[in-house]
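Hi R.,

As promised on Friday, here is the backbone we talked about, encoded as structure tokens. Could you run it through your design pipeline when you get a chance and send me back a sequence?
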């Protein structure tokens, strides 16, 4: 069964958690004890309706404040597809959480309050989706019940959002608008009689027809080596395999390959999935490869098709989202991890911060604070195989690690 990964985003009180809870309720994905707990809690809070946000807001602070703070992953299935929803917080101080939730998603739901329309946080949420190249965006114009299901209100919000699309890399066919009421369930799972002027699909119907391809789209073959397999048994005395996950495309026995960064060449001899042997491995497969030649391959190296080689560079320019309380400053050292390769890196320059409302860059600022996004030049201690993020997400992204705390300090996307 296909698995579709979805990120949600919206400003405070736009109803993200309520929308997800409604989907779970209407698809009968809530267990009996969970439903009973929601009913009891809703009654205790004095509500005359079910508070579906309680289905996702798991932290005590979230339930007490009625907001989402951390990224929660929710799982449910229909007859045709399985879903993983990343319920991300809407506050500006949790931008890093939004980036984390959207980084592995194929689709995104951005909620907009029909009463408030497009606001500053809406710009930020759409900017992050554009930065991370999330393939499909659904704009759920929520709380239509509070504006009497007005088509005029819906059209006004849609028109404002279309101005955002014009500033982005998206085409209009990749952005879908749906009027919903998460609280009452209008156009979430079932078609609403309150919006006779809307002839599109419900939210779930739209999700059901999306192509649930792997988040790493079809591109050139990239195989970061995770570990070298050398069995201790006598019968496999001469076996030497290279285990990892295959990104970008398929690879087959007999393909000519190059090992990076050494640039040595060989051919694929065998492909193993545990104890089974195959002629071809598809993208997204975790497998073990053997080579025809006894060449030096180690963890952190990358195996690619000889006809599809990436750049091998000792410096790179990237867009970085900063996730640490300690500022990013020129001259500071970090560990950079790309795939299975982890090497020393030094920040050469920060050319400016990027405004998340699509208004451009501030070139006067040469530092990055928590949740800020900017253009950064990085010097590497040794060559690294890289692609642009637009070409290959797997080899076009990286994380920066603070060597003293071992915290993930930032995430980068190579230009």
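Update: got your reply. Pasting your designed sequence below so it's all in one thread:
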């Amino acid at each position: 069964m296909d698995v579709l990964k979805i990120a949600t985003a919206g400003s405070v009180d736009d109803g993200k958690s309520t929308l997800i809870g409604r989907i779970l309720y209407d698809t009968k994905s809530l267990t009996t004890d969970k439903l009973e707990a929601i009913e009891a809690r809703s009654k205790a809070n004095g509500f005359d309706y079910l508070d579906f946000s309680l289905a996702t807001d798991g932290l005590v602070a979230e339930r007490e404040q009625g907001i989402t703070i951390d990224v929660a992953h929710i799982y449910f299935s229909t007859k045709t597809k399985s879903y993983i929803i990343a319920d991300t917080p809407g506050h500006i101080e949790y931008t890093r959480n939004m980036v984390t939730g959207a980084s592995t998603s194929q689709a995104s739901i951005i909620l907009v309050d029909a009463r408030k329309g497009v606001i500053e946080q809406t710009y930020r949420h759409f900017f992050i989706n554009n930065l991370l190249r999330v393939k499909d965006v659904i704009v759920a114009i929520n709380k239509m019940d509070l504006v009497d299901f007005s088509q005029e209100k819906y059209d006004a919000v849609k028109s404002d959002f279309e101005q955002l699309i014009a500033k982005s890399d998206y085409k209009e066919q990749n952005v879908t608008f749906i009027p919903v009421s998460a609280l009452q369930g209008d156009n979430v799972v079932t078609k609403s009689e309150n919006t006779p002027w809307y002839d599109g699909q419900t939210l779930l119907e739209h999700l059901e027809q999306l192509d649930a391809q792997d988040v790493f789209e079809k591109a050139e073959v990239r195989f970061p080596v995770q570990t070298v397999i050398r069995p201790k048994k006598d019968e496999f005395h001469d076996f030497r395999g290279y285990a990892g996950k295959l990104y970008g495309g398929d690879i087959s026995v007999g393909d000519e390959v190059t090992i990076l960064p050494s640039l040595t060449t060989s051919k694929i001899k065998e492909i193993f999935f545990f104890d089974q042997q195959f002629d071809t491995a598809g993208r997204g497969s975790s497998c073990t490869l053997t080579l025809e030649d006894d060449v030096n391959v180690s963890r952190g190296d990358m195996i690619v098709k000889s006809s599809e080689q990436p750049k091998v560079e000792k410096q790179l320019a990237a867009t970085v989202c900063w996730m640490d309380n300690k500022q990013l400053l020129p001259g500071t050292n970090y560990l950079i991890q790309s795939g299975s390769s982890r090497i020393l890196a030094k920040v050469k320059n920060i050319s400016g911060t990027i405004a998340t409302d699509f208004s451009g860059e501030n070139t006067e600022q040469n530092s990055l604070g928590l949740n800020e996004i900017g253009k950064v030049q990085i010097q590497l201690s040794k060559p690294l195989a890289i692609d642009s993020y637009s070409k290959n997400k797997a080899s076009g992204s990286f994380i920066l690690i603070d060597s003293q705390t071992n915290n993930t300090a930032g995430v980068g996307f190579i230009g």
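One thing I noticed while checking it: Residues 311-414 form a domain with the Elongation Factor Tu (Ef-tu); domain 3 fold (CATH 2.40.30.10).

Thanks again,
M.
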